[in-house]
C-alpha cells in the first residue's frame, strides 16, 4: 500500500513543476526587454517581491529550521535563481535612477533576511520555534503576493472585461494553489496551507469571473504582454500572481 509520505512526495514534485512554470511566465517580457534594450514602463517591484518571498521559503525549508522540506527548498531555490536573472536583466537595461531603486530595495531585503536568519539561529533553539517564526513571516509575504490580483479582479468587475486577466495564468495559479494545499494537508503544515489555500480560492474566483465576463469582453485584437512574478508557495509559489499590462 502506498504511504501518505510517498503520495506527499509525488504531490510536491508536481507542485515543483507547476511552480517552475509560473516562475518562467515572465520570460517573454524579458525577451522583449532584451530585444528593445529598454525596460520601458515595466516595474521591478514584482520581481523584488518574489525574490524576497523565495528567500524566506528557502530559509523555511532549511534542515535546521524545518526538517524534511526538501521540495519546498528546491523550488524556491530555483525561483530565487530565476528572479535574480530577471532582476539582473532589468538592472542592465534600466536608467540610472531605476537602477539605484533596485539596488536599494535589494539591499534592504538582504539585510532583512540576514537579520531574520541571525535572530532565528541565535534566539530560537528548537525546530518548532524556528519553524514558527519563519513560517509566520512566510505566511505574511505569501498571502500578500497571492492577494495581489485583487485589483485586477476589481477591474474585471467594473469593466465587465477579462482583457487584462489571462485565463491560462489564472488556471495554472489555481492548480498551483490546489497542489501545494494538498501537500500541506497530507502532513499538516499550517504555514504552507494558509497562503496556498488562499491562493487557490482567489484563483478560483478569477476563473469564475472569467467565465462570467468572457462574452462581454471587447475583441479588439490588441496585443498584450503579461508578466507574472510568481509564486510560489509558497510552498511555494510562486507565486504569487501579479499582472502588468503593456499596451
Fold and architecture overview:
It is a single chain. With 247 residues, this protein is mainly α. It is built from nine helices and two strands, in the order H-H-H-H-H-H-H-H-H-E-E. It has helices at 4-24, 27-36, 45-61, 70-92, 96-123, 127-146, 150-159, 167-186, 190-213; strands at 225-227, 244-246. A two-stranded antiparallel ribbon has the order 1-2. Helix 3 (45-61) runs parallel beside helix 5 and helix 3 (45-61) runs antiparallel to helix 6 (127-146). Residues 222-233 and 235-247 have low confidence and may be disordered.
Summarize this structure briefly.
This is Bidirectional sugar transporter SWEET. InterPro entries: SWEET (IPR047664), SWEET_rpt (IPR004316). With 247 residues, the chain is an all-alpha fold.
Average pLDDT rating? 85
Low-confidence stretches: 222-233, 235-247
- Structural class based on helices, strands and sheet pairing: mainly alpha
- Estimate the helix proportion, in percent: over 70%
- What fraction of residues sit in β-strands? under 5%
Distance between the termini: 54 Å
Radius of gyration: 18 Å
Write out the strand line-up for the largest beta sheet, numbering strands in chain order: 1-2
Alpha plus pi helix count: 9
Give the biggest sheet.
2 strands, antiparallel
User: How many beta strands in the DSSP annotation?
Assistant: 2
- The quaternary organization reads as single chain
Q: How do the helices and strands follow one another from N- to C-terminus?
A: HHHHHHHHHEE
Bulk shape: globular
